[in-house]
Design a protein that fits this description.
The chain is mainly alpha-helical and 110 residues long. The chain has a domain of 48 residues. It has a two-stranded antiparallel ribbon. The radius of gyration is 46 Å and the shape is rod-shaped. It is built from two helices and two strands. The longest helix has 65 residues.
C-alpha cells in the first residue's frame, strides 16, 4: 500500500501480503480480571505458607514444654539422689554411730 496526497492505493506484487492483520489486545475488563486472579492466587499462597509457619510454631511450643517438664523432673531426681546419698553417708559415718537414739521424754504443760 502506498500513500500519496491523502489517498490510499493498493499495489499487488510477488511476495507481498495484501491482507492486513489487526493486533488484538485485551480489553480493560479482561486485564482487570487477570490481574485480580493473579493477586488472588498470590494471596492464597501467602495464607497457605503462613498456616504452615503457625503449625511449626505450635510444634516448637509443644517440644519446648516437654523439654521444660523433663528439666524439672531432672532437678527433682537430682534432689532425691542427694537426699539418698546423704542418708547412706549418715548411716556409715562414725559420728552417727556414736549418737544416741532420740526418745520423747514428755511434754511440759502449764
Amino acid at each position: 500500500m502506498t500513500r500519496r496526497a491523502g489517498t490510499t492505493t493498493m499495489t499487488f506484487s510477488r511476495n507481498y501480503n495484501t491482507i492486513r492483520h489487526t493486533s488484538r489486545n485485551l480489553g480493560p475488563i479482561s486485564q482487570r480480571i487477570i490481574v485480580g486472579l493473579i493477586l488472588l492466587s498470590f494471596g492464597l499462597i501467602y495464607v497457605a505458607e503462613g498456616a504452615k509457619a503457625t503449625g511449626y510454631d505450635y510444634e516448637i511450643s509443644d517440644v519446648e514444654t516437654q523439654i521444660s517438664a523433663m528439666e524439672a523432673k531432672k532437678e527433682d531426681l537430682a534432689v532425691e539422689k542427694a537426699r539418698l546419698t546423704s542418708v547412706a553417708a549418715a548411716k556409715t559415718s562414725t559420728v552417727a554411730a556414736a549418737m544416741e537414739t532420740a526418745t520423747v521424754s514428755g511434754y511440759v504443760s502449764d
